[in-house]
Every structure is written in C-alpha cells, then in structure tokens.
Amino acid sequence: MSVATSGLHHVTAIAGDPQRNVDFYLRTLGLRLVKTTVNFDDPGTYHLYYGDSAGRPGSLLTFFPWREAPGGRHGNGQATTTAFSVPAASIGWWKSHLTGLGVEVGQVVSRDDEDVLTFRDPDGLAIALIAHVQGDPREPWDHGFVPPEHAVRGLHSVTLSVDREEATAGMLVDDLGLRQVGEDSNRFRFAAGAGGAGALVDVLVTPEASPGVVAVGTVHHVAWRAPDEATQVEWREELVDRGVNVTSILDRQYFRSIYFREPGGTLLEVATDEPGFAIDEPLLELGRALKLPPWLEPQREEIEAMLPRLNLPTENDVPG
C-alpha cells in the first residue's frame, strides 16, 4: 500500500439507555460530549461522541444507544477491549475513584512497561485505563469531572479477539500500514505511525472462545485515521484492487468514511481527520444541542419527537 494510517480515529460501541451512557462517560470517566447527533442510518437513535476538548481524532469513543436492544456477547471477531491512556502516576487514583463510585474494577496488572486497570461500563463494555512510564503528551479535557492531572489523554489501543492471527495481522500490516512491535504469549501488538498511545492494536488469539455477538455492551467498529479525502480515495482504490470488499465513501458530516471487515471478523473503518466537529457549532458549545446533517434537517421535528431528552451537566461546556 502507498498509504498508511497514523493511528486510531475513533471506536464506536453500542449502548442501552442514553442518559446512563452520558452520566457514566461524563461524570465517571470525565470525557467531554463533543457531538450530540443521530445515527444517520437510523435517525431515531442518538449517536453520541465523547473525546477531548475538541473531539480530536484519537480521543474519540462514540455510541449508538439502542434502549430496547438485547445485550451482546464478547468473543472472537470483535474488538473486545477499548483502552484509554492516563498519566503514569494516576492508576491508583483511578482505582480509588472508580471503586468509590461503585464500579467493579480488576487488579492493576503490568504488561509491556504499562500498568493496566480494567472494568466495564454500565452496559458491560470492556474498558481499560493504561499508564505508560513514558507518559502521554496529549492535553486532556480539563473542565470535566476528573482533575486534569489524572484525566484521560485519549485512546490508547484496542484489542481484537480472533481464533487465528495470521490473516488479521496480514491486513493490519499490508492494508493499514501497521507494523508488529511486540508479542507476549497469545497477544500480538501492532503500531501505526510513530507508535505509542493512540496508535496501537493488540491481536488476542483465543481459539477456544465463542464468536462474539455485536449488540449492547460491545464494540460496533474501530476507525483508523486518514488525513484527508484525497488520501482516502486513493486508499479505497488500492483496497479494491487488493480484493477487499469495501464500501463506497460515506459522508458522516464530521468526517468521510469507508468500511470493511478484517479477516477475523471485526468491522473496520478508515475515517478522515477533516472537517472535524466545529463545522456546525462553536467549540465552546460542542455537544450541547442536537445537530443534524443537511439531509436530515427537514425531519428535525419528527426526529426530536423520537429521541429521549438528555440532561447534560454544565461541566460539558467550555467556560466563556
């Protein structure tokens, strides 16, 4: 491939109750709600984007909250853990913070010079907080519910669970431009670009595991970065030439997207960094109001009637 990703763009998962989702990711994890919009393929469902102060690529975890959907099952063919990066000295603070809020957490484990703390969100989505001794230079969202010195810096990595690693590794290297940087028993680590937090994926080989079921509490897809539309067009053409079953380019308002599956089963996306979340509301007001793309705006009244009201804390706003 003549193009390669520089790292993760976002992870999209499926939630149940949208208010419960907002409360957890804003109040418990201290992220910022940077866009309140809808699932463009199902406008009666929210699409909620959480990230840093501006919703920069590499900081984003997003959700489709389907209130009546059944629970999913973690297993092969899925991204089974979504990890965030936190400061090296903050793992103990996070364990105390989460425990104090009634979140059941695992023991802190050390892996690849990193401390890892795992837990689940209210819908059962597997989350990890990872601290590396080298730190993470990215600026956190510093007006939320978590003190800035402990706050999440952005995505760290995702874990793909597969029954065999060869074909998945081949796509990561040959079609996305990653390189293998580590191996520990049945866990294989790959890095994009300069590597480090926000540019990592672990491939976990679990041949004994059952196939996953994508529903509430599981990851829907993992998105990788493309700098602009021209690169994405070139990327898509090369994927098609290599025999990958890839979608047409789709307008997601805040980025452009293509989708395809890696051989292990996980749905992947390549999303552009441009144009970003400030194209339809000021940075100070991100996430405050329901935003619709132009083609859905004529249906606003009908769409708003289908969506439950969300109560957002004022901490989600940037002080004027």
Please tally the helical runs, counting DSSP H or I stretches of 4 or more residues.
Answer: 5
What low-confidence regions span 5 or more consecutive residues with pLDDT below 50?
A: none
Supply the helix-strand structural class: alpha+beta
Count every beta strand, where a strand is a DSSP E run of 2 or more residues: 16
Gross morphology is: globular
Q: What is the CA–CA distance across the termini? A: 46 Å
Proportion of residues in β-strands: 25-35%
Mind telling me the C-alpha Rg? 19 Å
The level of helicity is 10-25%
**Overall average residue pLDDT:** 95
Question: Reading side by side through the largest sheet, how are the strands ordered?
Answer: 2-3-4-1-13-16-15-14
In sequence order, what are the helices and strands, one letter per element? EHEEEEHEEEEHEEEEHEEEH
Main sheet makeup = 8 strands, mixed
Organism: Kibdelosporangium philippinense
GO molecular function: dioxygenase activity
Keywords: Dioxygenase, Oxidoreductase
Protein name: Ring-cleaving dioxygenase
Sum this structure up briefly.
This protein has 320 residues and is α+β, with helices and mostly antiparallel strands.
